[in-house]
Design a protein that fits this description.
about 450 residues, alpha/beta, Rossmann fold, Helicase, Ruva Protein, domain 3, 5-stranded parallel β-sheet
Amino acid sequence: MQRRVLIVDDDRSVCELLKAGLGKRGFSVDWATSGADAFSRVRDNDFDALVTDLNMRGMSGATLCERVVADRPDLPVVVITAFGSLETATAAIRAGAYDFLTKPFELDDLAMTLDRAAQHRALRAEVRRLRRAIDATQSFEDVLGQSEPMLQLQSLLARVADVETNVLITGESGTGKEIVARAIHRRSARRAGPFVAINCAAVPSNLLESELFGHAKGAFTDARTARPGLFLQGDGGTIFLDEVGDLPLVLQPKLLRALQDRVVRPVGADREVAFDARIVAATNRDLEDALEQKSFREDLYYRLNVIRIALPPLRARGADVLLIAQAFVDRFAGSMGKRVTGLTAPAAERLLAYDWPGNVRELQNCVERAVALMPLDQITVEDLPERIRAYRPNATPLVASDDPRELVPMEEIERRYVVRVLEAVGGNKRAAAQILGFDRRTLYRKLERWGMADGAAKDDS
């Protein structure tokens, strides 16, 4: 894209010389011989950068710079001076100049400076756009996104929030299932009540029943007092059962009874206690596969899966990656006291190209690390982890690296291979299922879990 530049110098021959030289280097150049004329043009036209001599008759370059910065803060100003002292450089920067050059200078140096200035302007514009987009997508709490899958998700969440029906949230690890659960709670009629969360995979199985349902005094060793479980603690609010697919089989009938009758029996108690809470569950497992393997009860599955919300993986959300990255930049820069404003264009390209097997959680980790370590005001490619800098799309290695930190889960290997097979057969699901050794129902289910059900794959023709 051709950069448009305004040159300001009270020497007409200098303006014509710079116009000719920069024109040969791909710039579109206008010029003015007075600060007043230049300021008028800046107000009426869109330039990518302005170059002004510092010492001019009438309005000086420093005054022009101050007025441009005040009226058009998005327009970078490059100051040229024949006096290469520290004082003149300091004056130019204090006036708001983006950079300065001392005469004599090489045209290639000026061209490089203008390229950087134009990129700086474009990046600042992108940061403003992303921040406006972040504000616009606050329509459903912290569920950010403007991609089609996320717009559909936000619409579904708005309809789901005010009903009392059980919800099952599915999606890969790191896609933000608890964020969605909390958003549902905050928009529901139970928002004034507690939001109680438990990770069913993180609590030892011998303690999980007590955590969920509570226990009576003396129910077991060290049970010196009675303790209400999470179901009773969540009375009047929302109970979030994360990784419910990892619930031990022996506890599943007790959870089913609690969901059906809205009562729980604490461990060691002789009576049941009623509770009033909405149930939102989440899992990154394929529960239909678990049904076939008899590791999850069918009746509990249908009790939980009244309304299903499938979260798309980050790689299926397009430019949402940059939207979310900017939100993280703003958050971490604020909490760390850093003056980080955004990403350079090459860094943004790497984020868009990367596959994000760890989803939003991985992106958050990446941005937090970059903000914490970087000395500049923009995240560059060098600030990104090696796995992102070195990532090459369309590769499907069985072993991505010898570094354990670079290895990906088996499901990610499977997803990449399924995508590769679909590409090879032109998106024909029937042919892909035959090659993969799946029945079509299993293939459809996997594509839905990966947020690809409505992607490029063709119907079974």
